[in-house]
Amino acid sequence: MASNDFFLSAKCWLTLIAGSTGLGGTTLLPQPVSNIVRDVNFLVAARDALMAQPAGTAWFVVTGPCTNAALLFAAYPEVVDHLAG
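Now predict its structure.
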């Protein structure tokens, strides 16, 4: 296996997951269970979603740069108590 074969293979899978633009288009993921929140700031929406979960049960997954997570935890440190991971 050549040194770049892994990355070529990964690129094929990334296209399946993120679409040709990297923004979507896949049919492999489940449909969202709720609507996109558009009437509040993303930090408020994230805080409200996490606080609606029992303490120690929510998961917050960062899929890119951690700046949004850092902003959330700096602005609303109380959400940390609701996280399981």
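The mean pLDDT is 79.
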